[in-house]
């Protein structure tokens, strides 16, 4: 059955190639016949030069628009992370995030954040409260008490399960940077971990 499917696929592929080849030949002959029958008609105002000058502007605008969207998303994730590292673990609405971050967001960007970006972001946990989505930072590691022994236990557990190393950034994204660096330094000094 697989050989038959493969043969059918090859046949369709050959048919498509011959179709494309005949289409290209036809266009070539049409082009040569139309160029021999040229008339002195006025040039269209919708010429190639106008289109080519408009296209880069449209592309640049849409590119910068999507850049600003992702910049806003990055600011929101950073704000939620700062709140989490500061000890605030309550989920908040998008409007509250925007207000606290002092961001000015267009309605289309706000809709994108609420319906797509924040819902699918791996660094954000979504909690539905009374039908309203609320967002909170999702730490990469489970180190709620932020103690040295908790991190050491996590590292030992990951080692035993062959789950790989933990990055310094993940530890810093879970507990405050100063505390994380101090804990890591102490574990290295005690010879309990390797950086």
Q: Low-confidence spans: pLDDT under 50, at least 5 residues?
A: 44-62
Helical coverage, percent range: 55-70%
The amount of beta strand, in percent, is 5-15%
| Largest sheet entry | 2 strands, antiparallel
Structure classification: mainly alpha
Can you say what the CATH homologous superfamily of the domain at 65-137 is?
Winged helix-like DNA-binding domain superfamily/Winged helix DNA-binding domain
According to CATH, the fold-level topology of the domain at 65-137 is Arc Repressor Mutant, subunit A
Shape: flat
The arrangement of helices and strands along the chain is HHHHEEHHH
CATH architecture verdict of the domain at 65-137: Orthogonal Bundle
Mean pLDDT: 77
Oligomer: single chain
Pfam family, one: TFIIE_beta
Domain TFIIE beta: 71-142
Protein name: TFIIE beta domain-containing protein
GO biological process, one term: transcription initiation at RNA polymerase II promoter
């Amino acid at each position: 059955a697989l050989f038959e499917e493969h043969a059918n696929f090859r046949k369709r592929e050959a048919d498509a190639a011959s179709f494309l080849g005949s289409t290209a030949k036809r266009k070539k002959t049409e082009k040569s016949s139309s160029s021999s029958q040229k008339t002195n008609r006025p040039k269209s105002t919708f010429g190639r030069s106008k289109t080519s000058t408009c296209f880069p502007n449209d592309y640049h605008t849409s590119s910068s628009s999507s850049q600003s969207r992702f910049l806003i998303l990055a600011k929101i994730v950073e704000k939620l992370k700062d709140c989490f590292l500061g000890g605030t673990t309550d989920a908040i609405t998008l409007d509250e995030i925007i207000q606290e971050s002092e961001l000015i967001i267009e309605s289309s960007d706000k809709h994108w954040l609420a319906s797509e970006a924040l819902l699918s972001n791996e660094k954000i946990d979504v909690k539905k409260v009374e039908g309203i989505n609320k967002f909170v930072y999702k730490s990469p590691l489970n180190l709620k008490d932020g103690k040295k022994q908790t991190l050491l236990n996590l590292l030992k557990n990951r080692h035993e399960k062959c789950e790989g190393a933990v990055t310094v950034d993940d530890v810093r994204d879970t507990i405050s940077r100063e505390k994380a660096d101090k804990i890591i330094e102490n574990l290295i000094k005690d010879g309990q971990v390797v950086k």
